[in-house]
User: Fold this.
Amino acid sequence: MTTPADLADAPDLTEAPADLDPLLRKIGREHLPELTAQAAAVAQGLTRARFTVQGVPWDLPASPYRAGCLAALQRRFAALAPADRDILAARIGPGAEILAAAPLDPPVRAAGGPPTDRHGVGR
Assistant:
């Protein structure tokens, strides 16, 4: 079994390995649309986020945490060099445009309430 110590002298990765592309495409098709629905629901003060992924309708509790995750991903994507954004967008495929959208700012909170944890419960 490989341990962290075994990799101590390994060169740093400069790009994500190509075998991650199926996961990146899945993120673009499924996860980013969910995060978008979550952010929209929270921004509108709704208690439920409704969206469809691969023809399957979903109805989940609105999550300020997930909305904040999308904003964080969008800020990180915007901070990349333009060439790196292009490379990542091409590897993600459909859905990558969600990362290029302007993040909600300030970070999303439950409508009118205090900061919340990932379950939408006040801290």
Q: What stands out?
A: The chain has a mean pLDDT of 86. DSSP finds four helices and two strands in the chain. Residues 20-100 form one domain. The radius of gyration is 17 Å.
